[in-house]
Amino acid sequence: MRHTRQLLYQTETLKLELLNTPINELGLSIEGTYLEEAIAIVRGDLKRAGIRRLEPVFYLSTGYGCIAGSPIISLGFYDAHPLLQELNAEFRGWRYTPQQIVDVLRHEVGHAFCYAYKLYRTPEFRQLFEVEGNFFGTYPDSDEFDYNPWSRRYVNPNGDHYAQKHPDEDFAETFCVWLTPRSGWRRKYRNRPLALEKLTYADRIIRELSRQDPLVETKISWMYERVEEVKETVAQFMRARPARYYRKATGYLDPDLKTLFRKQPRIASRRALFRDYERAENFIRAQKVPLINRVAYWVGVDNTVAHDLIDKCIHRVRALNLWIEREQREKKLMELTAYITALCVNYKNTGYYLRLNQQKA
């Protein structure tokens, strides 16, 4: 990669852009990520196990979970992008491996099966998994829970005793062990009779119900905290303080571009919007060739210096959804030309587009 693109797209810059972007503007998708592969693996597990009528719905959210009472499973958005995974590890202290993601999904599908067939209402389930009172109403408000590290009543595939948190988690962990290929659960838990009894129950009840239609209807409206609805930035979500990235980011143009252009105006009529305003991306793209030629000539730099900088501007105004008022096109062209020229002069004199000690948030 040539030096100009290294400056504009280096890791610190990309991380800073992510941190300061609202989650609902990240444009994340399950497609093309390991999450898509993990879902395919778990769907394959379900098919091999004979579970053919249960079809969980997966969506990106602020974390992993299963909507109570419904086979709708949320996935952590931070696992939908490699740099988000790195930021999550840096600021929240943990990062799932690919195998852990698969295991989490098997666990969540366990919840989905329990809810879809309303196992929690049956006397056998309630007795075996020691349900007392309202199944959902008794779930702990906190992630902290008391557990007995020597208990032999539960499966414990990850060594975190999570099955002891609540009967809901007990069944989900049991289901995960049962669903995992070659887990050898009969042999592994042969000396834990109560845990084995739960696994044997799961083996029987799942086979009995697997070809029956679920008892609940999947309602997409039940999805909670979809990434498209979360307006806080990644930094706010992760409680991150990205100060050190400002000192290192050599291609962070967002503050300047937000000054040059504006957010999409709130106009109800689409016709009125495009009559009076224009996407900044289209505006810059239309000026790209003359800008490259004029700036490179007058500053005395190679065309690629201006070309890569303008391409970066186009990329970021698209990501930030920035616009201009059509009446200000001439004014904005002058401002944009001055901005591109100034950064190219910086590059010519210092080898950097930005003066890093003057970075703005």
Task: Tell me about this structure.
The chain has 361 residues and is mostly helical. It folds into two domains: 3-12 and 242-358, no CATH class; 22-228, no CATH class. The chain is built from 16 helices and six strands. The strands form two sheets. The chain has a three-stranded mixed beta sheet with strand order 1-3-2, covered by helices on one side. The radius of gyration is 27 Å and the shape is elongated. The protein starts with a helix and ends in an 11-residue tail after the last helix.
Structure summary:
The protein has 361 residues and is mainly α. It contains 16 helices and six strands. The protein has helices at 3-8, 11-19, 34-48, 82-92, 98-116, 123-128, 167-179, 185-188, 193-209, 234-238, 243-248, 254-260, 270-276, 280-299, 303-320, 329-350, and strands at 57-61, 65-66, 72-76, 262-263, 277-279, 322-325.
Features:
elongated; three-stranded mixed beta sheet; three-stranded antiparallel beta sheet; mainly alpha; 16 helices
